[in-house]
Amino acid sequence: MTTEPTPPELESDALKANLLETAVDSVTIADPLLPLLDIVSNYRGISKNIEFLLYEVSHPFRNWKMILPRLRSFVLKNIDHYFRHEQGPDAFCLFCGIFLEAVEDARKNEALLTTAMESLLAYLDKQTSLLTSDSLPRYQAALAKCFDQLYELDDEILLFLVQGHHPLGKILIRLHELWLAAPSCTGKSNAARLLQRVLSLNYKYWLSEEDPLAWFSKQCGDLCMGWHSSSLFVAISHQRLHEHLAALSGIDPDSPDALATMLALPNHMDIIRLYKQAPDRLGEENTTNALTMDRFAENRKLLFLFRIMDTAGLALIHEETLREINRGLVQLIRQQTFEEIERFLLTTLALLKSNVKKYPHTSLQCIQVLGSEVFQRGNSRLVETFLFETVRFGFQYANFQGLNDDWQPITNPAHLDNIRVWLSLIMQEPKWCSTLFSALIINLKLSGTCVKDTDLFQRDITQLLNHPIEPIYNLAKQFAKLMPVFFNEIGAEGQLRDVSTELDEMHKRKDQLIHFLRKQSHVESSNRIVDFIEAIFLFWQTLDKSVLEGYLSEEVLREVTTQGSFVDDLHTLMLRVLSLSPIKKIEELLTWDDRRRDTWLAAQQGLRPEEVRRFTLLIEMYRLCHQKYNLGVEEIRHQLHLAANSGFPEMEQLLGDLEICDPFQCLEALLDTLEGLKETILTPETFEAREDIYYKRHIAVDIPSVYGRYREKKFDALGLTFRLENLANVYLEKLPETVNLSFITRATFLRIIKCLRLYLRALKIDGITSRRLETYMSLLTSSF
């Protein structure tokens, strides 16, 4: 049996490398799992499906993210075939064992752990729903084994069972009724022992959260003046939870009535239900102490809804709560007059701002919903007020803090959400949003950003370009240029993969610093790679490990050595390089002529050739990453050749024109091309995006990765625009040199006018126009 075939249209180096890395000579299904095949051997379709799944489970590089949804679907769909079979109890134990194996493997991945536990509970729920008092004796030992295995799980993992979608209490209530009908069956005490631990974990979790009444009284402030709320929170108060925990501790799980007594205690779903009811009750309390109207009731309700969103244990109702928050905000806007809406926006945004640190995602979602309603009113004054308050609300900065042990950047997860929410507001009516767009640009310029290849932000750029952005074209370009996403290859592909792989393999992956760089560029690449490479050069120069902080995890940083075969020659080489007259800064390595560099390196004495080669490879990787993320003009002709073959045939003409040495002719050709690209970007026509995006199927390390290509004509046109503008700037800077000011004649002025026209044309292409400047230009021209 083989893995799924890869679509032939994707020639991905990352895919080839991944398949090579995870390839094994053969995969054998483990003998203990064979009964799962034997039971359904007479059903060809079912047998084929379970064989495929067992093959994947037995693979040394199995991918639970792919396996679990398919396995869950299979067991729930075909449970009858296994349940009726004489080996049914064995099959039940085997399937439970597979799910528990996935639970154990997914310890570090919260989302995957949730999926594994939910799949197991869904299977257990379905299995117990088929049981009767007659079939229970056959399954009693298997059920007891399953409960014991769950009981043995760590608290950290068992909490996912406590807070899952399939409550254990529902399953045990069903079994309790069966045990009453078949009192001779065993397994009841095993279930009671598990339930006691689950309830104990549940109560201790809620006790670790702040007491709702104390929290609400502190947060509510003036909103609660003359209002009494204690009665609403009694059932979820810490006092009541302590009472439940004490009652639970006094129960002996081996006693006959233990399970029934425990089932009468509130479980996780009961507590969630109480939290869910609280906001509506807060909103209904409109009169207190003869007050005829409580205008703060809705704000109290919103405040508690925010508390729900910030409580991890209430994740099951987060989506519903967010809808309720947004619905309440929308209704309030629709029911009020313009003046009331303006005051409401000020009050609501103030509430959101005071809670943004605790609930960044919820706050941003609310701003997006409010913005949509405000824009639909079509009132420019109201929009202006909203956008002004949105800017005052503040921005979620990236706050890059380095990398963890899995090569993942540690950043503010709300940063990209903030960018996308503001972009969604801008796209509502671009011509009204220059203030918000300017604020977004300023925040990104001041704080920087961190966008991973896996974020696929190219799609967002395409979406922006498909809106009427001509009135704010220059702002759109400024913003887009700050986003390091103008490349078609997602992940490390082509030459970048080849160079980084050769660099790492020079020492058989034993240089931890270079190995980390390679994996970072392959698995979770982002614009931080360029800074990381510069830090490596600086480390080689100074041997100061502190310059690598923020780029390496603590574990890897400890393993980096400041002496030995990995650094000694490179330290000597860096000192020699930086003593050269043309190379004073690390950034100048980008522009070091290849032939001069190779000649100089070949003349170096006392250095091992492989270390010189590693130095050359890192410079090459530095250039490739700079070209990818920073719109470098290195290899511009290669970029233009690719563009000519990817929907921009006019680039062939430009390549020919650039062979001409005259700055004026080159500039004219570049500006002609840029004008054509601008027309493509601003056309109301939309172009189909081609996304050849794939996810690694077998993962050698427990990190999902994305690779492939993204192409869309407007997006590609803007990327080409940025690179050609960088090249045009080189020629624009040469224009003053073409004017001879030592002897001024009429010809001198004509040359100046020619230069000025090119500057004005370049500004217009960039979306910048000035009537006054054009008037002065006309006056100057008419004078000659």
Q: State the end-to-end CA separation.
A: 82 Å
Radius of gyration: 33 Å
Number of strands: 3
Figure out the total of helices.
Answer: 37
Give average pLDDT, whole number: 86
Q: Beta-strand percentage? A: under 5%
Q: Biggest sheet: strands, sense, closure?
A: 3 strands, antiparallel
- Strand arrangement, major sheet: 1-3-2
Which regions contain 5 or more consecutive residues with pLDDT less than 50?
1-10, 286-295, 697-702
CA-based shape: globular
Structural class: mainly alpha
What percent of the residues sit in helical stretches (DSSP H or I)?
A: 55-70%
Tell me the quaternary state: single chain
Would you mind describing this structure in some detail?
There is one protein chain. The chain has 37 helices and 3 strands. The chain is an all-alpha fold and 784 residues long. Among the domains are: 1-186; 490-629, no CATH class; 631-733, no CATH class; 739-784, no CATH class. It has a 3-stranded antiparallel sheet with strand order 1-3-2. Helix 26 packs antiparallel against helix 27 (528-542). The longest helix is centred in the last third of the chain and has 22 residues, at 713-734. Mean pLDDT is 86; it is low at 1-10, 286-295 and 697-702.
